[in-house]
Design goal:
The protein is α/β, with parallel strands linked by helices. The protein has 12 helices and 20 strands. The chain folds into 2 domains: 203 residues, Medium-chain alcohol dehydrogenases, catalytic domain (Quinone Oxidoreductase, Chain A, domain 1, Alpha-Beta Complex); 126 residues, NAD(P)-binding Rossmann-like Domain (Rossmann fold, 3-Layer(aba) Sandwich), CATH 3.40.50.720.
Length: 409
């Protein structure tokens, strides 16, 4: 199958940042085990994490702030069609459209058993420490699969179903940060979003659904501020405007600050100037370098500074319902569709200022053919909560992993 593979830089160590080798390669398809699912990837979003994963320090160590194992197939914001399942799989069946979690928790460590799957002690991460979804196929545990049948049953075009599906992972990270890990937003509160890339826009949308009264965004790029206004932010300011007027001071005083810029060196001073008594600040984006804080405003206002990672733990079904109910529209959140062959170029450039998502169309099947394919897999109804077992078929007689001598295209 074709896949986007990241490898360490080959040139002699030099100045920072150094770019990884990213290319389209032919790699084996991993045969599903007894509790695994083989998914044909239809769409996969490009994330800032994918871009950061391609940067290396002068000594050839990854610059990415989280765990990563190189070489690796990139991609973790995915949706697709189930094509094969292991013999013990009951959660999905062939023909199901699914969205995929990328945080693959072990479910057995003390942290998982305490309900904190996103902090699993043995976690693997699709596209970082395990093969990802910028590939024609991906094999994942059945626990990572979420059926999108609620959308197809609601009459959605299958193209939009997969589009919504690939948005669940980034939306889920924001949902987790705001409503699960920290319970940060309550109806009637004012929210200030620092950084209006995709995560910042998603934060504003979800806070509006949750009943926030006023949502304000701060970003240096006019294009991003304009996009946030289009999506319903009440006001947007540039960083320079945060110093300039009484009106700005009023807008910036917030019960909840959401840091999605990835540049807390610039945003934390603004946050610290505008903490209200009992304010909460949620850190969602990673950063390459450590930052300093001034403890005094946090102590004086009894404010909380908290972080969050991941989207696991039953979040996807809530988001699927929001899409089905029309509270979220996937077309509002997408800027560009590209092909798999375009990925090495866009990861190398990282020049886009568009706040909306770039989505890779991995699948080449037309929506009408896909719809027929899904319908052909439909079986007579079964009792609620039970699906018939499907025995795994060894569709590809090869070993999992990325061969060291893979051929680049």
């Amino acid at each position: 199958m074709r896949a986007i593979v990241l490898r360490s830089p080959t040139a002699a160590p030099g100045s920072e940042p150094r770019m990884a080798r990213v290319s389209v390669e032919d790699v084996p398809v991993q045969v599903p085990g007894p509790t695994d699912v083989l998914v044909r990837v239809e769409m996969c979003g490009i994330c800032g994490t994918d871009i950061d994963a391609c940067r290396f320090h002068p000594d050839n160590t990854p610059a990415f702030g989280g765990p990563i194992s190189v070489p690796v197939i990139l991609g973790h914001e995915a949706s697709g069609l189930v094509v094969d399942v292991g013999e013990l799989v009951t959660r999905v069946r062939p023909g199901d459209p699914v969205a995929l979690e990328s945080v693959l928790a072990c479910s057995t460590c003390d942290t998982c058993l305490a309900g904190r799957r996103n902090q699993c002690e043995n976690v693997t991460l699709s596209g970082l420490t395990a093969p990802g979804a910028l590939a024609e196929f991906i094999t994942v545990p059945q626990t990572a699969c979420h059926r999108l049948n609620l959308l197809t049953d609601s009459g959605w075009d299958l193209d939009d179903v997969f589009l919504a599906g690939c948005l669940l992972e980034p939306l889920g990270c924001v949902f987790n940060a705001l409503f699960v890990e920290n319970r940060a937003v309550r109806p009637g509160e004012n929210v200030l979003v620092h950084g209006l890339g995709p995560l910042g826009l998603f934060a504003g949308l979800l806070c509006r659904i949750a009943g926030a009264t006023r949502i304000v965004g701060v970003d240096p790029l006019a294009e991003r501020r304009h996009a946030a206004t289009e999506l319903g932010f009440d006001a947007c300011l540039s960083p320079s405007e945060t110093h300039n007027s009484d009106n700005a001071v009023t807008l910036l005083d917030a019960d909840v600050h959401v840091e999605t810029s990835g540049n807390p060196t610039a945003t934390l001073p603004v946050i610290e100037r505008h903490l209200r008594p009992g304010s909460r600040c949620v850190l969602i984006s990673r950063t390459h370098l450590p930052v300093s804080i001034d403890p005094n405003p946090w102590v004086s206002s009894a404010a909380r500074l908290v972080g969050a990672r991941g989207h696991s733990g039953g979040i996807f079904p809530y988001l699927i319902r929001l899409f089905a109910a029309g509270r979220l529209n996937p077309r509002d959140l997408i800027a560009t569709f590209l092909d798999l062959e375009d990925v090495p170029n866009i990861l190398g450039q990282d020049t886009s200022t568009n706040p909306r998502k770039t989505v890779i169309r991995v699948g080449t099947t037309s929506p009408s053919t896909l719809t027929a394919e899904v319908r052909s897999q439909e079986e007579p109804s079964v009792s609620p909560g039970h699906l018939p077992h499907q025995r795994a078929r060894k569709v590809v007689p090869s070993q999992p992993g990325i061969p060291r001598d893979s051929t680049s295209r």
